[in-house]
Design brief:
It contains 9 helices and no strands. By secondary structure, it is an all-alpha fold. It has one domain: Hypothetical protein af1432 (Orthogonal Bundle). Keywords: Hydrolase.
Length: 176
């Protein structure tokens, strides 16, 4: 896990100037989602994939200044994976990012990692109210160790702004 944590920190540092004042909020969200992934799936071969996906899953909010961030987030992940010579992971991590706000169970290519990632993010977005049967005490301990710092309030403000700009598509990141 130490290598994955280092990779998360290294990637996030590159985006720190773009993320700006939201950096610590997003960093803690990234780590909570990553730890949720490891709670759900302890397969070592998936750990680095989860680490990379967590960093990039919402990054388009800042790189493209939009709440419609799934495609921009996928693009940033693709750039990184190509640069790091991990092109064989592009499709899987792209699907993890693209479907992480799916409101129903994901079924398709790379079902295991995509669905695990979806659940891990929903656990955090729901403030731990959704657990999908995973250890509530560990989820709560991670939330205490990595406080929210207003991340959810930030998302609510951004979504509210989008609602007034695009009332017919207020939540463009959600998928059925």
């Amino acid at each position: 896990m130490n290598n994955s944590i280092k990779e998360i920190d290294d990637i996030l540092q590159k985006f720190k100037p773009i993320i700006g004042e939201d950096y610590e909020k997003y960093r803690n969200h990234v780590y909570r989602v990553f730890l949720n992934c490891l709670l759900i799936d302890n397969k070592k071969e998936n750990e680095e994939k989860y680490a990379i996906a967590t960093v990039f899953h919402d990054i388009g909010i800042w790189t493209n200044h939009t709440i419609d961030y799934l495609d921009p987030s996928v693009e940033q992940a693709k750039i990184y994976l190509a640069k790091m010579d991990k092109k064989d992971w592009i499709n899987e991590i792209s699907l993890m990012i693209y479907w992480h706000h799916k409101t129903t169970k994901y079924q398709g290519e790379f079902t295991e990692t995509v669905e695990n990632f979806r659940k891990a993010d929903w656990i955090d977005v729901s403030l731990g109210l959704l657990t999908f049967g995973y250890d509530k005490q560990k989820i709560e301990a991670n939330r205490k160790q990595l406080p929210n710092l207003g991340f959810h309030a930030f998302l609510i403000r951004a979504t509210t702004k989008n609602f007034f700009r695009h009332p017919l598509n207020p939540l463009p990141m959600f998928r059925k």
